[in-house]
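Input chain follows. Return structure tokens only.
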Amino acid sequence: MTPQELKSSILQLAVQGRLVEQRPEEGTAEELYRQIQEEKQRLIKEGKIKKEKPLPEIAEDEVSFDIPESWKWVRLGNIITRNPKNSLDDSLDVSFIPMNCVSDGYRNKHTFETRKWGEIKKGFTHFADGDIAVAKITPCFQNRKSVIFRHLINGVGAGTTELSVVRTINNTVYDEFLLWFFKSDYFILNGVKSFSGTAGQQRIDKNYMTSCLFPLPPLAEQKRIVAKIEELMPYIDRYEKAWNKLEDFNKRFPNDMQKSVLQMAIQGKLVEQRPEEGTGEELYNQIQAEKQSLIKEGKIKKEKPLPEISEDEIPFDIPESWRWVRWGTIAKSIQYGYNAPALLSGTIKMVRISDIQNGQVVWDSVPYCEIQDEEISTYLLEPNDILFARTGGTVGKSYLVSTVLEKAIYAGYLIRTQYSNSLCPKYLKYFMESALYWSQLRSGTIATAQPNCNGKTLSKMILPLPPLDEQKRIVQKLDEILPLCERLK
């Protein structure tokens, strides 16, 4: 049960007479109701309150639940007065309360601003210490913006017209019991049913506060109910803190677990090392030999040497059989995409950042472009290419081209990296999801209105290189574990 559900349940028990026991010596609500009516008549005769139109009798089909025999169903308008008026000197300092000064939820708190009475006596709702205010507009009403005014400047004030103000008749109803009633689901849900007005500006019906059915207990029992609620609420507040911590943990756990598993993978802690699989050093030397051969054949260009990896760059230890390398030293090429307008038809399809959703190219959305035939081979997508977003909100996100369903090139806001067949493509892709990758990316990203990153940043990145067979075993293990993290989300 959520904290909200628990609070709602306690208030429902309270208004149904099931939170505390009934005591015969405390009298009945019928006796209290007669006392309230006598007090009302006296105040009417003295001119202190106005006489109102009689409210209709309560029909059986209006009653939502059973209440104790000592209680009585009444219409709220018969036991309170509404929207009182203050008559004060214009120069008097008073409290001014806009809606944002009234707390929502199950709290009974408000703040106020200081104003002169002459400034706010017209066009605002009047109230005084001890009055109860209930928001009447959505979403404030559903959010339980209701409060008992206390410690107002000179005991009086005025505020937003979106408050409906209730005053008990000489304390014949316990104001705090009435406030908890206003925060109950019973009151809120029935109020929502009475809503009228346009979307976003709906309010409770103007007669709801008087016609609403109210389960009236004897006065002493009202006070015992409030005492029990106040006794329980601190426990629920503690429960809510624990609940929120657990909810936060549950929300973070799948992502945290995913990050932790990826970190273990690139630290060499996810699978065991096997001597017969060779070393990262041997693999690195093999890749360099391949690159030199391709340079001699004119298939790739010779690039400027990258700086050696210094000790202070290395973020963590890796197995002895692994080697730290820079991305650029194991890549055959790191190349920007083709810049051209997107067209409904053209020479060839051109994959953009926006066409890659959830790690897949949405081929139906991929546009065409015009490009010279002799240039196509330079940008033609091939299986195992890795595309890297270099600008905007997606900067750094990557996509492994596992299969090419249609002949296509890639757009200018993407960078493509190609690499030796002696590397496991998915191991590199998993590295590009790790914390180490993202920390290096952030340090190399140019912070502008449209953040961007270039090929040099990717080229200089360091990554841990295991032997090829171990890369494959790491990928196999990640393929088993990471879907479980996704399901936890």
